[in-house]
């Protein structure tokens, strides 16, 4: 094998603790806890889901979640990049606190999460939950570089609080094109070891369905089938839910799909089913995945006792598949400026839907500012666990925003990291400060490039921004950007020169956050 490169008592206890003091805040009995399922989709933009406005793809299962729960319109990933976004979810920390973690990691990277740091799975486990991570990991493996894929992959998910892991070890566009179960490569054979830099027998996938991040058609090991990844991961996730549903302990599942990260390789029955090309077809498979999970919860009789969250690791991407979808009329990020990797809203404002029958009002909508970094504190609160001062330090309990009045606010500011450190950004109330020019993400000026983006992309998309003319930054454009998102959600007008005091206050706040590690 070679490398080619459950019940209302939870809220009552929490409310009682708030009334009579934190000393009364005691762990909740496991039998009284709801199950927790987080579906963390990949590269799904704000405009990729029906209930967020798209008309070129159909997402009936995701839309049904919104009808049964609460849809958030101001939810953000803490990073516009896949690995740092996952780090934020798992640890409840801004990724800039982890050695300035900005970009994705690949097959040679060791685990980027310190094993002595409390994770979202640790919090669930100490409350009595059975825990599993199924799907895309993308947080590194082992404690050395390069990673030894012929040995047990330790440390990994099992050392971070998860009882079980099955999934894609890195990302579906990069090697190794294998599955990992717990801490070993599935199907590994001692007489067929992994060798860096050697080409395996592969199946070159038709470029029509996507291109790898390193260029050219994605080629996979002969035992790996791109078109079966979504169905394989779904089978594992639903099997695990069925097995756990009959047990006494509640369960926590972190299900990270590879949909809709390029290459766009849905199972054949989804190909050609959308009006947005292969990009949209992959969304259709994602919606089916969500439907399989919700149906499994229903069939197991635990849907009413389960908090289910659906969200994305970052915004939609303007890769070749994204460009084709755009030409067909689909807008991955709706009317938002920018794409994956950007500090502009399109890079990190994402769908976020939560369903918890009897707790979250059905068919409700909230404009509360929230983030995936908040899920750790939310799990802790729902599970009756008090966090220590260095456990999820940037995470805020979303439970009031989930179950309270739609206008309930839980946070006033959020640090957001794009791909480039020069564009580290802060949301404060309605204000958004971007500490650099452009989007801070991909910036190739050539249509058709995998890395097409930045100012040049505005000519392709027809979007406008006061700092940009004819796809280029204007001479003399401000070095930083400030937007009032209440008045200008599309970020068409940089008002930093009109509000220097607001910008300086926010710059100082960024300095404070970064220095407080």
UniProtKB/TrEMBL annotation:
Leader sequence residues: 1-30
Domain Sulfatase N-terminal, residue spans: 34-384
One Pfam assignment: Sulfatase
This protein's record includes keyword Cell division: no
Superkingdom, taxonomy of origin: Bacteria
Keywords tagged on the record: Calcium, Hydrolase, Metal-binding, Signal
GO molecular function terms listed in the Swiss-Prot or TrEMBL record: arylsulfatase activity; metal ion binding
Gene3D superfamilies: 3.30.1120.10, Alkaline Phosphatase, subunit A
Recorded family membership: Belongs to the sulfatase family.
UniProt protein name: Arylsulfatase
